Amino acid sequence: MRWLLRIVSVGFATLILIALYILLIPRNYNVPEWIEREGTEIWDLKTGSSIGVYSVISESIIKKKPILYLHGGPGGFIKDPVIRVLSPLASIGHDIYFYDQVGSGHSERLSDIMEYSINRHRDDLHEIIDRITDDQVILIGHSWGSLLAVEYLKQNPDRVQSIILESPGPLLPFRSDLSKTKAPDSLELRAPSFTNQQGNQEARNLRSILVQKYAYLRGKKLASDQEMDAFFTYLNQFLSRSTVCNQMNLKPFPGGGGYYAHIMTYRSLSDVPDSKENLRSIETPLLLMKGQCDNQYWGFNQEYLDIFPNTRIEIISDAGHDIISENEVAYFQTVKDFLNVLD
To answer: N or C: which end of the chain has fewer CB within 10 A?
Structure first.
C-alpha cells in the first residue's frame, strides 16, 4: 500500500512542477523581431493612445481626399508591402496615412488590457481623422480593418467619401448561419488549401491557452507583452498559410503584432449591438475586393452586397485573403480605377 501512496505522491508533485513551469517560465519563440520603420511619427491622442503613424504626402497641385489605411488583425500592424503598393496614389493627389492600431506595431501596449476594445479603436480612428482633415476621408480596410471602418461609418457617414474593403470579415454582430451560403459558380472561387483552424491547432500550447483564459477571466496579463507578441508572430506564421492561393507565394511573417490587443479586441466584438439596418440608408460608395481563394465565407460578403445600397465587388484572380502578397498589380489597379470613378 505504501508503494501506491508513494507513486501517487510523486505523480501529484510532478503535476505541480509541470503546472508551475507552465505558469512561471516564459516560452521562447524563434521568430523575427520587430523592426521599427524610419519616418514613423508617434501621435498622442486624447483617448490616451500613443499611435505610430506613417504618412505619404502628395506633392500634386490638385489635392484629393486623404486615404487612411486600416490594417487587419485585431492586433495586426502596417506592413511594408502595403505602403509600397499604395504610395503611388499620392501622385494623383491623395495624402495617404498608415497607422498601427493601439497595442501593436509602433503603437503603445496598454497596461490595462480591458481597454482593448472595438470602441477604443473606433475612438482612436475618429481622432486620427480629425487630425488629418476637417473634411471627408477615404477608408481602406483589410480584413478586421473593414469591420473597424464600418463601425466608424455607422456613426460618421458624413465624414467618409468612400470605402474600400479588402477581404472583409463579417459584419458585426456575426451571423454564423451565413457560413453555409454558397457562392455563385460564375465567380470561380476556390477554398485555400490550409485553414485558420489548422493553424491554431498547430501553434497553440498549454501556456498560451492559459494566458488567454486568464486574460478573459481576470482581465490581466499572465505573461509579458514581449513573450506574447512573439507567440503571436509564431501563431501568424501558421495562420498566414490560409491567406494565399499558392503556398509558394507565402513569405516569412514579420514581427510586430500585438497579442493582447488581438484577443481582447476580438472578445469585445460580441458586445456590438445589431444596427445593420441603419447601414441600408448610407449611400457611401463601397468597393469590396475579394481574393479568389479568400478564407472568408462567401455569405459574409453577400451580406455586404445585400445591405449597402451602393456596393460593387471585384474578384481578384489567383489571390487569397492577403491579396497584395499574390497579385499586387491587380490590387493596385482595382483601387485606382475605383478612385478614378469617384473623381
So the answer is: N
Give the model confidence (pLDDT) of 224-280 as tens digits.
Answer: 999 999 999 999 999 999 999 988 888 889 999 999 999 999 999 999 999 998 899
Mean pLDDT for 92-99 is 97
Closest CA relative to residue 40, chosen from 90, 89, 80: 80
The answer to whether residue 25 sits within a structural domain is: no
Contacts of residue 329, defined as CB under 8 A and 6 or more positions apart, other chains included, come to none
CA distance 8 to 2: 10
Counting the structural domains of the chain, the total is: 1
Please check whether residue 225 lies inside any domain of the structure. yes
- Residue 9 counted as domain residue: no
Nearest alpha-carbon partner for 165 in 288, 69, 276: 288
Query: What is the dihedral angle through the alpha carbons of 161, 167, 168, 170, rounded to the nearest 10 degrees?
Result: 150
Which grid coordinates belong to 252? 516569412
Q: How many CB atoms lie within 10 A of CB 98?
A: 25
Query: Do residues 264 and 218 lie in contact, with contact meaning Cβ atoms separated by under 8 Å?
Result: no
Strand locations in the chain (E): 41-44, 50-56, 67-70, 96-100, 137-142, 160-166, 286-291, 311-316
Q: Please give the pLDDT value at position 9.
A: 53
Residue 70 has pLDDT above 80, yes or no: yes
What is the domain extent for residue 147?
A: 41-342
Q: DSSP secondary-structure letter at 243?
A: S
CATH number at residue 265: 3.40.50.1820
For residue 13, name the pLDDT band (cuts at 50, 70, 90): very low
Q: Is the pLDDT of residue 175 over 70?
A: yes
Residue with cell 488567454: 212
Residue 79 within any structural domain of the chain: yes
Cβ-based neighbour number of residue 299 at 10 Å: 17
